[in-house]
């Protein structure tokens, strides 16, 4: 997995590529949590995300809770059909904002 983050004032864009699974999800969490304090809008770009596991979904849910808890927002963009299917099967398709 590769994560590239860019900041535009209070907006943070995290481009996640590869696999978000049991092995890589802690890395994503470690990169995100320290920078959420100064973030009002978090945008995930999943155009090149090949796979997401339950461990990856856990990190996304935890991040979503942090953002909502501080009055911020989180959006997921460019979800591939394969990854979107995971959100649909788990019922999380309605829990996140997708663009």
What is the overall number of helices? 3
Q: What is the 3D form?
A: globular
Uncertain stretches of 5 or more adjacent residues: none
Percentage of residues in DSSP E strands:
25-35%
SS elements, strand count: 6
Mean pLDDT: 96
Please give the share of residues in helix: 25-40%
- Briefly note the structural class of the backbone: alpha/beta
H/E element order: EEHEEHEHE
CA gyration radius, whole angstroms: 12 Å
Distance between the termini: 22 Å
The biggest beta sheet reads: 6 strands, mixed
Summarize the structure.
34% of the residues lie in helices and 33% in strands.
3D structure, described in words:
With 99 residues, this protein is an alpha/beta fold. It contains three helices and six strands. Strands 1, 2, 3, 4, 5 and 6 form a six-stranded mixed beta sheet that branches. Helix 1 links the parallel strand 2 and strand 3. The mean pLDDT is 96.
Topology at a glance:
Elements: E1 2-8, E2 11-20, H1 25-32, E3 41-45, E4 49-52, H2 54-69, E5 73-77, H3 81-90, E6 97-98
Parallel strand pairs: 2-3, 2-4, 3-5, 5-6
Antiparallel strand pairs: 1-2
Helix pairs in contact: 1-2
